[in-house]
Amino acid sequence: MLDSFGRNIDYLRVSLTDRCNLRCIYCMPEEGVRKVHHDDILRFEDILKIVKAFSTLGIKKIRYTGGEPLILKGIEGLIYETSKIPGIEDITITTNGILLSDTTKELKRAGLKRVNISLDTLREDRYRKITRGGDIGRVFEAIESCIRIGLSPVKLNTVVIKGINDDEIEDFINLTKEIPVEVRFIELMPIGEGRRYFKEGHIPSEEILKCFPELIPLQADIRGTASLYKLKNSKGTVGFISPLSCKFCNTCNRIRLTASGTIKPCLHSMDEINIKNHIHNEIGLLANIKKSIFNKPGEHHLEREGISRSLKDMYQIGG
């Protein structure tokens, strides 16, 4: 389905939960999140009804996110049922990887095509500090497992923060020499906990690129969010996601569903459409979905306002 700006919206990101087993400093409050009543969160059967409705309007790609989606029991079944929905061609997840190595085979059998793994450092002690207690060994196991069984491409999402992990940029780039992963450097955004680090920590992608002239630009999907590069003879690639310094709103093809049952047409907009009450009313559900797609904002204003308008934090949206 086309929005009012003529963009074909065919990608739905679904946040399954705002809970997580880590407390990354730029994402989650150290004390965790307020517990939400079970009835206030969409159940898997509700999500499937919503995804089916979206599929009739041209949604082809589904990404399940969190919080951390793998803390939920039965996610393999959700992925399997999603894979049977006519029109859905691609199912992916974004995860911190801690629980991934235990379930890679089951997830692939269920219909999962690809994974994005959040990884902001390659150092064990720093990982514990950034995540407030995570075990980086489990993440490395997950990366190896995904590559071994063919969940590819494996994308590593790395939020670069000055003074926190920017001294590891070269290490991440060199990682692509040895293993077939796509390292994706993501600009820190002024949303949620990230606001605390944004003023001193934001690094534009072009600053990194200037330091690594050996990176060779690649032809990328014009609707993709990442500008792709690679080193000569490398097994993997390097991507840059630049929502501030080089925003990609004019080609944005995605829309978001939160765990509480609201549609966010834009990550950084305060606008949300509550569709939870329409789950059992097909006509009302489709009407509200159409409305949310057609009225998707033309662009965000981070570069001008310096702060996200979103009323929800990243862990409540799923990125």
UniProtKB/TrEMBL annotation:
Which Pfam families does its entry note? Mob_synth_C (PF06463), Radical_SAM (PF04055)
The entry's S-adenosyl-L-methionine-binding residues are Y26, G67, S118, M189
The lineage is: Bacteria, Bacillati, Bacillota, Clostridia, Eubacteriales
NCBIfam families given in the database record: moaA, PRK00164.2-1
A single GO molecular-function term is: S-adenosyl-L-methionine binding
Q: What is its EC number?
A: 4.1.99.22
- Pathway note: Cofactor biosynthesis; molybdopterin biosynthesis
Subunit structure as annotated in this protein's UniProt entry: Monomer and homodimer.
Q: What is this protein called?
A: GTP 3',8-cyclase
* Species this protein is from: Fonticella tunisiensis
Note describing how the cofactor binds = Binds 2 [4Fe-4S] clusters. Binds 1 [4Fe-4S] cluster coordinated with 3 cysteines and an exchangeable S-adenosyl-L-methionine and 1 [4Fe-4S] cluster coordinated with 3 cysteines and the GTP-derived substrate.
